[in-house]
Amino acid sequence: MPAWTNLEKKTSPIKMEDNFDNSRDGLEQQIEQMEIKCYRAKEEKAKMIKELNLTSDVSIDYESD
């Protein structure tokens, strides 16, 4: 009796490659989604900064009574 036995089904190299391609495609999709999310967050941040700059008028003296 061998000291180690493979309990999983043996898969052909072609099937292993297909599984690798599928997992790689899934990772690529996740990366792409994260890049889009990051881009949108940067755009939203830039928009908020622009809005804050428009609403903060340095000519107004807020400390005067």
Characterization of the model:
Residues 1-22 are annotated as: Disordered. The chain is mainly alpha-helical and 65 residues long. The chain has a domain at 13-52. Helices cover 66% and strands 0% of the residues. The mean pLDDT is 76.
Strand content: under 5%
Distance between the termini: 94 Å
| DSSP E strands, number | 0
Which structural class should the secondary elements be placed in? mainly alpha
| Largest sheet report | none
Stretches with pLDDT under 50, minimum 5 residues: none
- Specify the number of helices: 1
Helix content: 55-70%
Radius of gyration: 28 Å
Pattern of helices and strands: H
Shape: rod-shaped
Look at the structure and give the mean pLDDT: 76
Q: Helix and strand layout, with pairings?
A:
Layout: H1 13-55
Task: State the gist of this model.
By secondary structure, the chain is an all-alpha fold. It has one helix at 13-55. It has a domain at 13-52.
Please describe the structure with a list of short key phrases separated by commas or semicolons.
rod-shaped; mainly alpha
